Amino acid sequence: MSAIATLTHMTEQLQACQQGTLSVTELTASWRNKADQLDLPARFGEVLGNVLDRLESGALFSEESCSFSQKDLLASLQVWAEKAQAQLSKEQP
Predict the structure, then answer these.
(1) What's the predicted TM-score (pTM) here?
(2) Rg (CA), the chain
(3) Other CB atoms closer than 10 Å to residue 80's CB: what's the count?
(4) CB atoms within 10 A of CB 92
């Protein structure tokens, strides 16, 4: 699977999570697994890891008792995916 196809699949999973058809736990596990296949600069991995860590931490608590907003973190993943898409598009001949 190409990096673009992998990222497209990841984005589809994000949309499913936002719609409530995929759990945060399933999303974070899948994204951690697939991110290594994207061959992006190291800073992308660092940022993604931080967002996924916060998303996993927030999933352990109810929305009211956690300082991390799940909605905001999912929006952050969308921004990350858009930037990753731009980076991957630049690298293609």
Answers:
(1) 0.87
(2) 13
(3) 20
(4) 8
